[in-house]
Amino acid sequence: MVGLPYDCLANPLGAVRLTFEKAVASGSDPATFEGKDWGATDLFRQFIFDDGGLSQVPFLNPSTMTWVQPNTLVRFWGMIQDMLGNEFYVGAYKEGETWRTNKFADFSQFPMAVDSSPDMRVWERRLLYCVPVPGQNSWIEHSSESLFNPSSISSPLQREKRHREDDTAINDIDMQVTDEEVHACTSNKKMREGGIASNSSNTGDTLNEDIDSSTSVLPYFDRTSFPCLVKIYDSPESNLKLNDVFEFIGVFTFDPEFPVDKNDTNDLESSLCDDTLTQMPPSRVPRLHCLVHRKLATQDFISGSPTFELKSHLVKSIREALLGHLTSILGNDGVAANLITFSFYLQVHARVDSIAVGKLSLNLTCFNKETLSVFGHRLNLALKNLLPFTHCIPLSVDYLNKVSLVPKKDYQTNRLASGILQLAEGSHLTIDETQLQAGTLNSTGVENARVLRNLLELQKVEYDFTYYKMDMPADIQLLVLSEGKSNILPADLVLPLCPVSVDAAQDVETEVLRSWRWYLATMRSLSHTIEKEMQKVLEDDLVAARQADRSLSSLDFSRLLTMGRLVSLSFGETSLTLEHWKMANELERLRKERLQGSL
Amino acid sequence: MASDSSPVNTPGGANPSTPDVSISSPIGNTFSSPGDTDRRKRGRRSDTSTPVAPENRQFTTPDVTPTPRRGGRRASSTTPGAATPSYASDAPPSSEGGEGDDADEAPPMYVWGTNISVQDVNAAILRFLRNFREDSSQTEGKYMRAIHHVIEMEGDSLDVDAHDVFDYDGDLYTKMVRFPLEVLAIFDIVLMDMVSRINPLFEKHIQARIFNLKTSTSMRNLNPSDIEKMVSLKGMIIRCSAIIPEIREAIFRCLVCGYYSDPIVVDRGRINEPTICGKQECLARNSMTLVHNRCRFADKQIVRVQETPDEIPEGGTPHTVSLLMHDKLVDVGKPGDRVEVTGIYRAMTVRIGPAHRTVKSLFKTYIDCLHLKKTDKSRMHAEDPMEVENGVVGSDEHLDNEEKVEKLKELSKQPDIYERLTRSLAPNIWELDDVKKGLLCQLFGGNALSLSSGASFRGDINILLVGDPGTSKSQLLQYIHKLSPRGIYTSGRGSSAVGLTAYVAKDPETGETVLESGALVLSDRGICCIDEFDKMSDSARSMLHEVMEQQTVSIAKAGIIASLNARTSVLACANPIGSRYNPRLSVIDNIHLPPTLLSRFDLIYLILDKADEQTDRRLAKHIVALHFEDPENSEQEVIDLPTLAAYLSYARKNIHPELSDEAAEELTRGYVEMRIRGNFPGSSKKVITATPRQLESLIRLSEALARIRFSEKVEKKDVMEAFRLLEVALQQSATDHATGTIDMDLITTGVSASERMRRENLVSTTRNIIMEKLQLGGPSTRLLELLEDAKKQSSGGEVHLADLRNALATLATEGLVVVHGDTVKRI
């Protein structure tokens, strides 16, 4: 990259300015730039994707926060947790006779007349509040962090430890802040305490003192402690949706010196323009002025892994190995292993009215204390190793009564307070019902149980906006572990677990794990169709089945077809073959047999 | 209007038609302090300057408080007396004789940066206020009357319908929307002038409150180009701040001599505290102190409004916007209200700190509220049926959009609209076409009728679906619930009587008893969908009797006696007893519902799962297609949900079909025929096949069918289709399985005529046996012996013990026998 008059990496704003000046010089009127790009993002696109600059862009995360310089190019992986609406800013203005731009920056680089002239152009940008993907497993960070890290911060191995470090890392930053600022911070904190304490665990205010207590209440939801405020320019609204996982590449601004002066501002101003500035002072929440963003698919998380060719024998061998592994984990229960793998390729691929086509939730029954401690634990571990985002909900009466599962809009802060069920697409959720005892549910508990049931049946989560509820489509792989058939959570597939033997847990080599992850991610993303002839066969089969057994409903058919689809996907096939259809039927038969046997 | 279009800024100081222009534009331009915009606001407030303020029209700076331009106008209580008379005397032609031609006499003044002439606008507003009439027969203009009314009521605002402005003068409307600050200022001056001429003693200021703009913006689409424009948007209030008292006029008192200063008006958001006592004798320094209770304050409130759920695109969160409310608007709405706001979209810069002069390059936006209309009156209050019918309250659906209406009308002209709508209704539920047609009729509904005698006939159609499990009844219900303009979905098991009707609760804050409406009341003018109807408790179900015929819910508890409207259609679905329909039993036996309730349903559909390969195949095909095809491709020619909903609400609101003579004749004929059908030739027994209730149902159905076609006349074919629908429904439900004929008795009493006949026969047989065998006062007989005899005697069919017991019970009431356990004794 020698010879370029700018450095995209270290001085992205310089590059932006350069392109702006160039565009103005070539005769374009800056007034026409509103909602458009004058060539800046093209430049960065080229730099990042075509010139291979992507790998040089450092990740923004708690550990890199210590050394990443403000106003440099960074990238951030996160889930859109809340949308904070639009922000109007002075996009272009005249300094003397020269046009300047403020795009991709918090402050103007050049003095700007306060009430300036008609030559001031107001543009808008969108604010997105992003958090690390909830339930993100540690292996993702291994791949993302180990690559660049000039300073020798070793990637911490354990979550808990890592979490502590996050805190200290940011506290360190805080230390650098001038005394005055610290003072302002604390006073601000005091002022705001009432507001924040209620949703502190969710707004993800890292520095909040009660973060520890809040994590103890929500032990499985502590990953959102590194939020980032992403400012999006010129992107149609429909491109970025709530709960989508994105990679944002842009200019990082973080201003620990930013004065917080809430004390003196009058009420009108604070209530008119409260929110973002007060709750998320730039000294806590980094800003990212997004230049380029792209939606992340599961494969993107497995960076650095060898890309395998999509050959059927290779796929088959990986599939066999993975199935073997899961079978041994589940005490040689092949059917269970098969069904569990199904959920890995699941994807809600269509929604017709209220029906989510392609969902398949599994309920493994016959878990008791002993089997749970052996298999449940091992299963969890395996899931964590295989899937990018996993979650586990230990269902108990107490838990149901206390926890807030659904995201709720907090009108005091005007923010969407996250709930446990605000999950990214494709997350895996294990609901452990074995700890459920008899007890009384209060209204929260009843509501929570209803929400879980809705999720299971419709793949939808109802977000609570106090005055109304809003359905958000979800795409979550669900696994319910229970003693008997779960009545609270009616899953599509119920299977009693029949462990035959308990093998010692085997360690899997990293390389193998990687290939499995790759396999799962790739298979999941495959599209799937069905040939005309096969459709005919399916129809005949279904009709015959229904003639034989009147109790079969459309739901059963749906399930069977989904299973067929998943079997065929697991072989890396893009269309259903008779063989795979038979396999699906066979599995269903085995499952029903076992269900009969267990009754 | 302005023929002279040169954008000259004429200093207006010497202009006779604009009183007291204290600040001329060029001077204003030289100001560059952050607070200078407030001067313009003050100018506006004092009502004496023309709105030709030149400085940046777009942004106000948060000096100390971004004092909004409205609300403060009362502050200038001293000015109108001085200013208006001069105005009136100086410019008589503008206000009396010539309408707006005074522009020729005075040098034109322009709104800064535009070619809008102040005089032109002034004259246009005057013309509008004087001459606008809703219809030509009225002698006095609508707004002249309104102004008189305001003066009488001592009000302080005049509501101006923007539609009226548009109808009268489109140009004025455009100017008003594009330059609201300026035009509204002129508006206020004109109003002030008019008022003072009508009643010179009237002290208050009347502000124009514009509402009902032609176009309504969505909160999401507000963008920088809307700044300083008049916008109108719909939303829901989510948060109201406390009321903020804002000082308008301050009075100071000298601590030394007790001298009270003159009122000091807020200037640029600040009060300039006098440092020296105003009294000549005193002149003490730094002795002035604020006298709080003699200052004047105005109310101010900040309200946050959020998008309504229907405007949020998929995968988005609702946007919010702040509103600034003043004076009378304060506390008009409370959190949870749906409102329609008209106001001026404003932006202000964000300063880094109060001590810093530098501003960030950011703006905070808010809407300076002019008018607030609650669009969703609490249903408990919207009780005047006429009002609802006229669409005054039902304005939540904005269908004034003419284009849209045209489209709908075009759609309604299609010959196959009925079939098309049927197809579009729950397209992923196949078959069940007749059920869907029935549901369609329910959605459109008939005409409610209330006679002057007080009798009223409901227009709502009630439907009951009974069927085997897994026949997508619940899905149909869900779909209808989504589609109906106002619907509540409940499940029978989860509903209690109070939950359905209304209950009295104590407000936790105020301790007042409040009436909370239940599902049925809430779905007034909508459809109440009740799933699992059979599993509902009896007490809850009995509440429905009143609702389904009288359409009201009466309550008498905890000191509240009320009758609430519940003009709702009920769509219920039930599973047969024993989960599968037993074709050998009657409907009543199958669903186990009281006949009294059952007869209130206009249509009862049986959705049976027949073991039919054809249907199975279709099901299989459907599911396969669902899984492996693009669902969008498979649904063609289907009207999408929003259009369907719009179609529906338009029809419900605007189409009120009446029976044509032909249709009425057909109805009579058909009804008579239905009743005749019950008389079997050569049989003395009479089977009632139709009741007056059915006739009413037929009328409702045919009205609904006419409505589907957007037709104001019910035609013969509608009636015929209604008969067909009713027959289809009846054939399925009211078939007497013993005789195979339609029998309304089955519905109304639960016992078919033939069954009744059989019972009567048994009674007479038993009577004969007893008369023969038993002596008066003789020894008793055992029941089983009687049964044997009865079996021998009765000509055909089995005689069960239970039947016999029934017969004996009848005889016992006649005083013929006494039944003691298993023994029977004649007395």
Automatic annotation (TrEMBL), chain A:
Keywords: Nucleus. Transmembrane segments: none annotated. One of its GO terms (cellular component) is nucleus. One of its GO terms (biological process) is DNA damage tolerance. One of its GO terms (molecular function) is chromatin binding. It is found in: Nucleus. Pfam families: MCM_bind. InterPro entries: MCM_complex-bd (IPR019140). Its main location: nucleus. PANTHER family: MINI-CHROMOSOME MAINTENANCE COMPLEX-BINDING PROTEIN. This is Mini-chromosome maintenance complex-binding protein. The lineage of its organism: Eukaryota, Viridiplantae, Streptophyta, Embryophyta, Tracheophyta.
